[in-house]
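Data card: per-record layout.
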Amino acid sequence: MEAKDAGIPVILVDRQINADSSLYAGFLGEDGLEEGRKAARFLLSKTSGQLKKINILELSGTENSSVVRERAKGFREVIEKDSRFSIIHSEDGDFLRSRGKEITERLIQQARDEKNYRTDGLFYMGNKIDVVYSHNDSMTLGLLDSFSNYGVSTDNTIIISIDAEQKSIDALTKGKLDCVVECNPNLGPMLMHLVKEIAEGKPIQRITYIEEKVFTEDDDFSLYEERGY
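The structure for this 229-residue chain is written out next.
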């Protein structure tokens, strides 16, 4: 409000805010809804030949953040049309590797207590988790840490992550992940373009989404370039 009163245009970058849209010139960042949809579309394709019920564990990011709401909503928009899918547990991992590890280890310990512990995957309340949908790479890597520590195989669990940091792409190429949806952090060049447009008195779009890719187990890994982050 102070910026508006002073005649200073504001551009939101990366995250939306809870404010009247008249207070800012535009938003630049990721399309969280589409990221969730992309993750779900991969899952539909991956499981197209299956008839059985498919149980999903969702590792959610920081509670009530705009991108978390969008990634959850977009994912559900797609899978809710297919009765095979059920999100049997969703937990806030706060986008942290330590929390992803903690949640996974707790599930493993619970399975041990319930005499359901096996090394071929995760379980929740006695139900085999077929799919892990993680809102970011850090939590996913924490999950993989726990799998490694407890000797749990990733072979029978479909693991989908969002971000596409180098470490998760490396895990994908090693067969530890099935799909990584990009959350492109390279916003600087487009941001400067929008700043220059405003400085020249030109209007900018209310929403500008950055281009984002999807990396899957079916890709030609030799075409991958170093991520740089």
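Known properties of this structure: The radius of gyration is 20 Å. The helical segments are 2-5, 32-46, 66-79, 97-113, 137-150, 166-173, 188-199.

See the next section for split statistics.
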